[in-house]
Amino acid sequence: MHDDTSGHPAPRAAFTAADAYTLRTALDALGGVRDLDTLDVACGHGGTAGLLARGGARRTVGVDSCPDRVRRARERQSGGRDGRAAAVEYVVADAADMPRLGPFDLVTAVYLFSHAPDRAALHAMFRGIRANMRPGGRLLSLVRNPGAYPHVDWSPYGMRILDRVPDGDAPLLKAQFLTEPPVHFEYREWAHADFAEAAVDAGFSTVAWQPSRTPPAEGTRDEAYWSAYRAAPVSSLMTCTA
């Protein structure tokens, strides 16, 4: 998993482990991706795109607005680090102005919508994805949960919210990944209702939500550790049907 705000590889933090587990279990519940045409938007360094390719997707395309991230994703697959990820096609494009690349049966988007700078861009992202999907296709998106700051401390799970600034169509949250040194980033605190409104406006027929799932307890990340996280997780999984 990744967060598309930085040029750094995803930190190996507990919340990213929960994100990965949530997405993998959702894909398994859909029956996997074998022989599907798949798209990963805001692909970063290619982690999720590689997962789709290794799962047997007929075609996998990764899209990111940052040329450097796309370059690194291509280097990663050419170096053989992702196995089946050699099948991934990478494209530099803005999600709010995405060209026709499909049609696709399945689209994934990890934290993409939380970085829409305004409502127009948010709706454009959903429209661009829907235009690239076959009828009946699925969109799986990890989206950040609103309302946590200043009540929830995610420091034990690898990130911290520093400030919440009222700004434009959605508040701006200033945060950091707790790496060494910390990596600072920002995102918009959109409500889940805003995501649902944009999805329906784009033509998706259904919108559903699933809570974050956590990996099996192990070592210091025991059941009490994960239970506290599930009470106030960083993200939820949004599932939309085209």
UniProtKB/TrEMBL annotation:
Name used for this protein in its record: Class I SAM-dependent methyltransferase
Enzyme class per UniProt: transferase
GO molecular function, one term: methyltransferase activity
Protein's UniProt keywords contain Nucleotidyltransferase: no
CDD domains per the UniProt record, alphabetical: AdoMet_MTases
SUPFAM superfamilies in the record: S-adenosyl-L-methionine-dependent methyltransferases (SSF53335)
Protein species of origin: Streptomyces racemochromogenes
Coiled-coil region(s): none
Alphabetical list of Gene3D superfamilies matching this protein: Vaccinia Virus protein VP39 (3.40.50.150)
Sequence ranges assigned to domain Methyltransferase in this UniProt record: 39-137
GO biological process: methylation
Protein keywords: Methyltransferase, Transferase
Enzyme Commission numbers on file: 2.1.-.-
The organism's taxonomic lineage, starting at the top: Bacteria, Bacillati, Actinomycetota, Actinomycetes, Kitasatosporales
